[in-house]
Amino acid sequence: MATGDIPQGGDTIAVIGGGLIGTSWSALFMAHGYDVVLQEPAKAAWPAVPERIATALRQIAELAPDLPAAGQLRLTTSLEDAVEKAVWVQENAPENVPLKRAIYAAVEAAAPAGAMIASSTSSLVWSELSAAMGDPARLITAHPFNPPHLMPLVELFGPDPDRLETAAAFYRGLGRTPVFLQREAVGHIANRLSSALWREAVSMVAEGIASVENIDAALVHGPGLRWSVVGAHMAYHLGGGSGGIGHYLSHLGPSQERRWQDLGNPALDRATQDKLISGVGAEARGRGIDELEAARDRALIAAQLALSGQRP
Amino acid sequence: MATGDIPQGGDTIAVIGGGLIGTSWSALFMAHGYDVVLQEPAKAAWPAVPERIATALRQIAELAPDLPAAGQLRLTTSLEDAVEKAVWVQENAPENVPLKRAIYAAVEAAAPAGAMIASSTSSLVWSELSAAMGDPARLITAHPFNPPHLMPLVELFGPDPDRLETAAAFYRGLGRTPVFLQREAVGHIANRLSSALWREAVSMVAEGIASVENIDAALVHGPGLRWSVVGAHMAYHLGGGSGGIGHYLSHLGPSQERRWQDLGNPALDRATQDKLISGVGAEARGRGIDELEAARDRALIAAQLALSGQRP
C-alpha cells in the first residue's frame, strides 16, 4: 500500500495488545471485513481474546446488521509477524513511553513502508511517542472512547495533514466519527472534558452537596442526555434565545465566570475516596461490574440506533 | 388540598411566568390532565404562549402517546387570580430576589393553605428566596433542565423532608426524574457540572487545542453519549475493570489529580468570545436557532424513547 491509500476490506490490520481496547478494535476491524493479526506477548491473555471479540462482534451486528462477513483473526506473540503484511497498525500497548517507542522501532523495521501506525494512547502525546522514530510523521495518535466498537469517537493528532485525512477516511469507513486536535494535549479533548466534569462531581460529594447516585442521575437525565445530542458550545448557543451565543456571552458571560470561580478543587484523599466508593456501591445496588457493563452496552446500542442521523 | 397531598389530574396548577420555562411546564402539566392558570403580567407576551404550548404538547404526545386529554389553559395578569384555586404553584419569574420574594408574599396571602410553591430558579438558592416568607418550608426549589417538557431532570431542595417527598412523587407522576440536594448550592447539581465542563471546552478553544465544532463533536460522540447512559462516577467504576472505582482510585487517582491541575481557567475576554462566536457559527453551517432547536428536540425525543427503561 502506498502512503495515503485507505485500507480496503480483505487487507490485514495489525493490532498490538490484546486487552480491552485491542480486542474491541479487532472486532470492529473484523466486522468491516479486515483480517486481523493481534500481537499479544502474554500467552496467558490469549484465551480471553476470542470470547471478547465474539461478544463485541454480536454487539456490532446489532448496530450495523448489513456489514460484510467478518474477517479472520490470528494471534501471535511476535511483533514482526503481526505487522509483516499489515496495511495499518493500531497500537494499544500499556501507557509506557519506552515500551511504545520500542514497538514503533520494531514496526518501522518490519512493516510495509506505507503502513501507518496509529496509537490508541489516552494519556501520552504524539511528540513524546514519535521522538525516536525514523519517520515520525508515520505515527498518529488515534484515541478511541471506551468501548471502541460501540463509541463513535476517535480523536486524531499528527503532523501530516495528508496522513490525517487518510486516517479520518479510514475511521469513517469503520462508522467512527473522527475529530481533530489542532495541537496535542494530554487527555486529548474528551478525557479533558470528562476530567473537568468529574472534578466537580467529586467536589459535590466531598462537600456534601449531593450523593454519588443523585449526581449521576442528574447528569444522565439532564446534561448527559442533552450532550448526547448537542455539544456544550451549541447548548449555550441554543440557551441564548434568538441572539444565540453572542447574546449569552454578553449577558451571562460575567455570571458564568463567577460560577467558574465557585467550582470545587477537591483532593482524592482517603475520606473522599471512601465516600465515592460507598456512594457507587449504593448506586450499583448489588449489581456486579459485568451486569452493569452489559446494561450499559445495551443502552449505548439503543441510544446510537435512535440518534444515528438525527442530531442537529 | 392538605399539605402532603399529591395533586391529581383535574386539579389546577398556577404557573408564574410565560417565558420558555413557564410555557414548557404548562404544557407538561396540561398533558397530564391538570388545568393551568398561567400568570404573565406582560400582555405583550401573551400571543406567543398558546403556540409554544401547542408545539410542546405535540412533542410530549410523541414521547408519551397514552396520556389523558390535555387540561385547560387560562391566562391572567393577576397573581391572586392565578393562585386562588391552585394546588401547586410553579414559579418561573426572572432571577431577581426582591421580585420573587414579592411573588411568594402574594401567593402566601392568596393561595389555598396546602398549595406548595416550587421555584424553577437556576441561579438562586432556597435560603435567599424563602427568607421573608411566613412559612418558609412551603417553598422548595425545583429546577428543571431546559426544555422541561422534554428533559426528565428536576433538582429539588427544601428543608422539609415530607414536602420534598410529596414534590418528588408529583414530579415522578409527570414522568420526571427528581434528584435531591443534601444542601443548597448555586447552580444546583446539573448546572455546576455543565459549567465545569464548559470551562474546559472554552479553555481548549482559547488555547487553540481544537475548534468549537471538533470539541462539540468529541463530546456528542464520546462522553456525552456515554453520560446519557451512565453517570460520571459510574463510568469510572466501569473504567476500573473488575476492581471497580476502588481499583481506579488507588491506581489512577494520583494521575487524575495531576490532570485536574492541568485543566484550564480561561477568561471570557473579547478574543475568546470572538473565537466562540465564530466557531459556533461554523458549526451551525447557516442554520438558524429555530432549525437547530427543532433538530435538537427531535433527537432528544428519539434518544429518550430509546433509553426509557434501558439504563443500568
From TrEMBL, chains A, B:
Gene Ontology biological-process annotations: fatty acid metabolic process
The 3-hydroxyacyl-CoA dehydrogenase C-terminal domain, residue ranges: 187-255
Domain of life: Bacteria
GO molecular function, one term: NAD+ binding
Residue span(s) of domain 3-hydroxyacyl-CoA dehydrogenase NAD binding: 12-181
One of the Pfam families matching this protein, by short name: 3HCDH
Keywords for this protein: Oxidoreductase
Site feature Important for catalytic activity, where: H143
PANTHER family for this protein: 3-HYDROXYACYL-COA DEHYDROGENASE FAMILY PROTEIN, 3-HYDROXYBUTYRYL-COA DEHYDROGENASE
Identification of the protein by name: 3-hydroxyacyl-CoA dehydrogenase
The organism of origin for this protein: Albidovulum denitrificans
Organism ancestry: Bacteria, Pseudomonadati, Pseudomonadota, Alphaproteobacteria, Rhodobacterales
